[in-house]
Design brief:
The protein contains twelve helices and 25 strands. It has 499 residues and is an alpha/beta fold. It has an eight-stranded parallel sheet. Strands 6, 7, 8, 9, 10, 11 and 12 form a seven-stranded antiparallel sheet that branches. Strands 18-19-20-25-22-23 form a six-stranded antiparallel sheet. The chain is elongated.
């Protein structure tokens, strides 16, 4: 048996995250209960972390995906914006889902959206400068008084949990004039955009809605008070931080430090800094004091490029200019997410044929926190998209077989990569973007005479020669994952139990 029946001995405790939503889920208040019902299966599949969507009331009530933030204290409890529950369910459903996920050993990440507020309850007269949309550092010198939607007093909540009321002094700017309906970015007189943000369009502090001023002491106190309340109320284990490129990097280190002192002492945070420029990503890590990890957007764009133009991309440079290469301990690799799916503003969808290769790359190498997208795991009826082939097998293999030592194999070229994952359950992984089958020749005397099976194409069985030599075929535009035949038998049984 070569010791292959023991699925825990010598393997690392590898984290794997599931993003538990996609953009076009139905507005049926059902996600919290549904994801709770999946908890046992997700844990058995090999996931260790679950990223849940924003849980608080948005401006569109139960039709809001969660990013049009209205009231962060309303977790589906108050009859505001046309509904009591959010799109995903009630406060009780949300807290119950977290308890259930915890009960199956799954950590929970909360999606936190600090940048903006939308759906104001009232208007006020505010003096503001009109800003150049393409260069936010340029604005009209003369400020004009306007009627703006900047008052948030949450009448339905009536002071429960917090008596804080928002007005224009808590924001830096907005984009909508209430009295005439005109749209255009405005910076409030006496306010300045934050310095420690992306320099896209001159300064990318402003995105949408009423832009929260995280340099205003009263706002910082309120966001900290809210965070303590939320962390203690929900018991979450960490945070996914939305749109950090537009939030002053100096805000997060003290905020996260305070959160770690409360509730379940959440010890993990991943920020969404949407840029394919790795220098911007590393710059933000430096500015925030490496208090969080970041999604590796640069690697995502490499995946997208290869999937559309495989002949023009050299796989040997896949890791170059990515966060996974430069700051691996602070990189969360992903293939796609809710923002990249078709129809979204950041659409950059990785083509289906390449997805198994991309997931093999992030799941079976040394990425510390790879993230699997809900739509790739379950499919997306709205898009007519089926689940990604072999993804269940890849996640299980990461959880049960993956060792810590990655050994690149000789013979890589522009269209093929091959590496070995060393350990008690050795793996050989081949990626092939060519239009023809490739055969990779490897050698390891320690594996002499053992039989290996490609889990993606199980008819491809290879017996290692007495001197440790083996030839590993991989079909055109495909990946191959070779494992010991005994390990493959255990994998098959796990997949049968799943069905």
């Amino acid at each position: 048996m070569n010791g292959q029946a023991d699925m825990t001995a010598g393997t690392a405790n590898h984290e794997t995250m599931l993003q538990c939503f996609e953009w076009y889920l139905p507005d049926d208040h059902g996600l919290w209960n549904w994801i709770a019902a999946q908890a046992q299966d997700l844990a058995a599949a090999g996931f260790t972390m679950t990223w849940l969507p924003p849980a608080y009331k948005g401006q569109a009530g139960d039709a809001d995906v969660g990013y049009g933030v209205y009231d962060m204290y309303d977790l589906g409890e108050f009859d505001a914006k046309g509904s009591v529950p959010t799109k995903y369910g009630s406060r009780g459903d949300y807290l119950g889902a977290i308890r259930t996920l915890h009960g199956h050993g799954l950590r929970v990440l909360a999606d936190i959206v600090f940048n903006h507020r939308m759906g104001a309850d009232g208007e006020e007269r505010v003096t503001a400068h009109v800003v150049d949309v393409d260069d936010r550092t340029v604005n009209d010198r003369t400020a004009i008084e306007r009627t703006l939607d900047t008052v948030y007093d949450f009448p339905e909540r009536d002071g429960a949990y917090s008596t804080f009321r928002w007005n224009w002094r808590d924001f830096t700017g907005t984009d909508y004039t209430a009295n005439d309906g005109s749209i255009g970015i405005m910076r409030f007189a006496g306010k300045q955009w934050s310095d420690n943000v992306s320099h896209e369009r001159g300064n990318f502090d402003y995105i949408m809605g009423d832009d929260v001023d995280v340099n205003e002491p009263e706002v910082v106190k309120e966001l900290t008070d809210w965070g303590i309340w939320y962390t203690e109320t929900t018991g979450v284990d960490g945070f996914r931080l939305d749109a950090v490129k537009s939030i002053d990097a100096k805000f997060f280190k003290p905020w996260l430090k305070t959160m770690r002192e409360h509730g379940n002492h959440p010890d993990f945070a991943v920020g969404e800094y949407w840029s394919g420029d790795v220098d911007e990503l590393t710059g933000y890590l430096n500015d925030c004091g490496h208090c969080m990890t970041l999604f590796d957007v640069a690697l995502h764009f490499a995946f997208e490029h290869i999937s559309h133009n495989p002949a023009s991309y050299d796989l040997r440079s896949l890791a170059a200019h990515t966060l996974t290469d430069i700051e691996p301990a602070y990189a969360c690799a992903f293939v796609d997410n809710h923002d990249t799916q078709p129809g979204q503003a950041l659409e950059s969808w990785v083509q289906p044929w390449f997805k198994p290769l991309a997931y093999a790359y992030i799941l079976l190498r040394d990425s510390p926190y790879p993230c699997v997208f809900f739509g790739d795991w379950y499919g997306m009826p709205h898009e007519g998209t089926a689940p990604t082939p072999f993804l269940h097998e890849l996640v299980w293999t990461r959880a049960h077989l993956l060792g810590d030592v990655i050994v690149p194999q000789q013979g890589d070229d522009a269209r093929t990569l091959c590496w070995k994952v060393d350990g008690p359950h050795p793996l050989y992984v081949v990626l092939n973007t060519a239009d023809d089958q490739v055969v990779r020749n490897v050698r390891d005397e320690h594996l002499a005479s053992r039989t290996f099976v490609d889990m993606c194409h199980p008819d491809a069985t290879v017996v290692v020669a007495d001197d440790g030599r083996a030839s590993l075929p991989c079909p055109q535009r495909a990946c191959a994952v070779y494992m010991d035949a005994d390990d493959y038998a255990v994998l098959q049984e796990a997949m049968r139990r799943r069905v």
